[in-house]
Amino acid sequence: MDAFILAQQLVNGVTLGTIYGLIAVGYTMVYGVIRMINFAHGDVYMVSAYIAAITLAVLHFFGFQSVPFALISILIITCVITGIYGWAIERVAYRPLRGSTKLAPLISAIGISLMLQSYVQISQGARDQGVPILIQGAFRFGEGQHFVQITYMQTVILIAALVAMGILTYVINYTRIGRECRATRQNRQISAILGVNTDRIISSVFVIGAATAAVGGTLVTFNYGSFNFFIGFVMGIKAFTAAVLGGIGSLPGAVLGGILLGLTEALFAGYVSTDYKDVFAFSLLIILLFFRPYGLLGRAEVQKV
Amino acid sequence: MTRFSTFFAATAIASSLFLVPALAADTIKIGVAGPMTGANATFGEQVWTGVSAYVNEVNASGGIDGKQIELVKGDDACEPKQAVAVANRFVDQDKVQAVVGHFCSSSTIPASEIYNDNGILTVTPSSTNPIVTDRGFETMFRTCGRDDQQAVVAGAFILDTLKLDKIALIHDKDTYGQGLVDALKKTLEERGVEPVLYEGLTRGERDFNALVTKIKSAGATAVYFGGLIPEAGPLIRQIHEQGLDVKFVSGDALAQTEIVTAAGGAQNLKNVYYSSAANPLEDPATADAQAALKKANIAPDNYTLFGYASAQTIVAAVQGTKEGSVEDQIAWLRANSVKSAVGDLAWNDKGDVKDFKFVFYAFDDAGAPVPSN
Questions:
Q1: B147-277+358-371 and B10-144+282-346 share a CATH fold
Q2: A3-291 architecture in CATH?
Q3: pLDDT tens, residue by residue, B247-263
Q4: Residue B202 and residue A231: Cβ atoms within 8 Å?
Q5: Where would one find coiled-coil regions in this protein (chain B) (predicted)?
Q6: Is B257 on the interface with A (CB under 8 A)?
Q7: Contact B214 A133 (CB under 8 A)
Q8: Count of other CB atoms within 10 angstroms of residue B27
Q9: Are B47 and B103 in contact, with CB atoms under 8 Å apart?
Q10: Across the strands, what pairs with B72?
Q11: pLDDT tens, B315-372?
């Protein structure tokens, strides 16, 4: 095993981890505000992959050929449409059940997840769909068969994820809506008394979560080139794990958890066994939760009596 | 008057209850089981399309001796547990007389035990794992080949035709994929070749970059993959993207046009080969079936044809024995051959197709499969 192989595995792990992190942000935001896991999140990500591909096809149809323009407009359009899905899910599956038991919205979210899967399967078919390669080529460091490469697409993923996280951090920390989010998170009732429209805030959290999933979905679609109606399942589980690992409810935690999970998977697969990489990753999660029950960057919740 | 009409309506409803079972007895029920939802739904769709195309044809021309065929769909999502539930439903509730299915070997194996106990003729269009017919179940037949045959052919292809001996074996931890790879491993070891890598990937994932880097560091010159298209496509693409100079060889699951999109275009399929039944579309014996599919406006996908052939097998056995018992139908299938959408099929006592031939295919510049020699 030479250094090039190790470096390549690190690159593989970080790119994969960044994607996990982006999707994990959606879980973490929703949990942070309403203390509820949005089990339809993986399928929102899947829907966004389809929207991205359809947008690309439409852009091609109208003769837009410039790749940067296509990529940016696809990202924006996908975020908006997926955001509407996020809003609708909250309206249909969460809001009517807000006053009921904690388990009810969980079940309705699983219902939405199944519904989205079947809806896409029926409307788009069960086959693997593909998109043409938009950006080809790679930076290569090294010579002959010994090199480390970062494809241009992987670079785009890293940059886009950084930008998305930057925007999100800014929104949460420095804008009015972000302040209201944090207030709702701390105490929904008091915030409502103080004039925060908490229903609207919860809606917007779902929209923001869906939009980050859309960034992930678009990037993954153009990176791996193929997708089907079932991709949300595995990605949802992995991203959820990343969110728990980093401390659910914490934004930087989601990204850190994602990158850690990606690196663990890549290194274990590369040096030990691909068969058992998930077993190893999840065992690691369990051990970590023994020592830090709220994840790496999570804060313990004070139970008020 | 009102009272009379109420009475009349009640009688009509009551008598219709008696009419329904009477009608039902005049149909022949065939169950079709496969992954209609889930990650492999595309295959279930193909099988269902093929079976219903043939059944519609038979029904339109008057059915079997005037009896219409009724199809019952069963969704196992390629999960063994669900497959058993489907099998029990077919037997207890739907009371089917024969089954086309299941699709995945991992589903067919447990479900066929139930069919065998209840004497239901079962024809799988696609389960290639040896265990499917090796357990001595009389009712079990298949229209496809066997993985151990496929593995022997694949071993000879890699070692003798491609002349490569640094082989990485990758499977998807499922009965079909791992069974195929394990059989190939045995074949290679008999020839004194030890694989440089033996790994299983997780179904449903898209990122195999870590595995590809590992294949590279193992110095493999050939990769054999046992698995299905959702994983094969990204794997091929990532091998290409990381600039590995390897030949990619796989099994009959790749015999689908969607491999071109899944792998990111025909340019990525340059060094890709797969084994499959000799292309049924080129066999003159299948002209009738092709014409029928064309008339019904159905794409002749690989498993559509095998589903069609499986339905033909069952109908032929029922017709050939003049709706005889299952024992008669089994004896008939062993003694006769069926002219099907995948060529002429005849069976040995195990239920395997006699002289099933695997042929290797490569891809041309447009991504269409061409025989490779």
A1: yes
A2: Orthogonal Bundle (1.10)
A3: 999 998 898 888 998 89
A4: no
A5: none
A6: no
A7: no
A8: 16
A9: yes
A10: B31
A11: 999 999 988 899 999 999 999 999 889 988 999 999 999 888 888 999 999 888 888 8
Choose the closest CB to A230 out of B38, B200, B207.
B38
Helix (H) or strand (E) holding A151: strand A146-151
Q: With respect to CATH, is domain B147-277+358-371 assigned 3.40.50.2300?
A: yes
Query: Helix or strand or coil: residue B80?
Result: helix
Quote the tokens at residue A123. Answer: 């409307």
Where does B10-144+282-346 sit in CATH, by number? 3.40.50.2300
Q: Which of B200, B216, B260 sits opposite A275 (nearest CB)?
A: B200
Peptide bond connecting B102 to the previous residue in cis, omega within 30 degrees of 0: yes
Predicted-complex ipTM score: 0.88
- In A, minimum Cα distance to B40 occurs at A126
pTM for this predicted structure: 0.85
Q: Which two tokens stand for residue B223?
A: 């990769």
Q: Which of A3-7, A190-194, B10-14, B273-277 has the lowest mean pLDDT?
A: B10-14
Query: Which helix H or strand E contains A181, and what residues bound it?
Result: helix A176-186
What confidence category does residue B22 fall into, taking pLDDT thresholds of 50, 70 and 90? very low
State the Cα–Cα distance between residues B135 and B16, nearest whole angstrom. Answer: 45
Where along chain B do its domains lie?
A: 10-144+282-346, 147-277+358-371
Question: Tokens 């080139």 identify what position?
Answer: A225
